[in-house]
Amino acid sequence: METDFIEITNENIDHEHLCCIIRSKTAHPGVEAKRQWLKKRLDEGHVFRKLNSKDCVFIEYAPLEKAWVPIEGENYTYIYCLWVQGAPKGHGYGRELMQHCIDDARRQGRSGVCMIGADKQKSWLSDQNFAKKFGFVPVDRTLNGYELLALSFDGTLPEFTEGARVCKTDTTGLVVYYDHQCPFTFQRVETLKAYCKKHEIQASFILVDSLEKAKAIPCVFNNWAVFYNGNFITVNQIDGTMLEKIIARA
Questions:
Q1: CB proximity list for 235: less than 8 A, separation 6 or greater
Q2: DSSP readout, 14-55?
Q3: Final residue belonging to a domain, choices 108, 143, 161
Q4: Which domain-ending residue is among 111, 132, 161?
Q5: Domain check: are 34 and 136 in the same one?
Q6: What is the mean predicted confidence (pLDDT) over 22-28?
Q7: Structure pTM?
Q8: 229: domain range?
Q9: DSSP state letter for 65
Q10: What is the CATH classification number for the domain harbouring 180?
Q11: What is the DSSP letter of 123?
Q12: What percent of the chain has pLDDT over 90?
């Protein structure tokens, strides 16, 4: 019997949970921000497929042309997130979701599927070693250790934009680029703003609110990016403790 997966649609998006944050029965500002962001993406071919239960089991992908990432490529599918957490781990759900994405891309006549990775696995990026079991290989990289992984169907390859290779800004202090694709960013930004204000840390928070802005970001980006004193630091979402370590190293 096939696993019971469902996809978020215009018809069910208002009442289906979005998997990432499922700990509260009350409205969550990050989830609602994500819901509004996703509503605008569904007609662009964005897919959010999840296990039909209140568990964290889902994949999220979109046509690369419409994906809010600084990556270019003709006719590719981009995976934002593939996540299986807690008790559902070990049941093969991740394999089913990845295979569905690959099969869907083939059905649509896409040229391949791609995702962001790194020399060392980052906690806010999907498991690149898992992707490599399906044939994904590194096809592009930045000087600071991030990789673009791709499974090509026709020999063509995507690449990072030239802007993504820059990894520099002319702004001092902390600079955070973020969007509402991830429901964790909403409260993360508010908490980090409060921390910076309390400790008098110079900080700028830049909401990426369009496809054009996302494609033009001067670093690797999957929904979050951190700079300090002009240097790109990480795509990992950080808190005050992590920020203090960044400042100390700088």
A1: 116, 122, 124, 125, 146, 220, 221, 222, 224, 225, 226
A2: TTS--SS--S-SS--HHHHHHHHHHHTTGGGT-EEEEESSSS
A3: 161
A4: 161
A5: yes
A6: 65
A7: 0.93
A8: 164-249
A9: G
A10: 3.40.30.120
A11: T
A12: 78
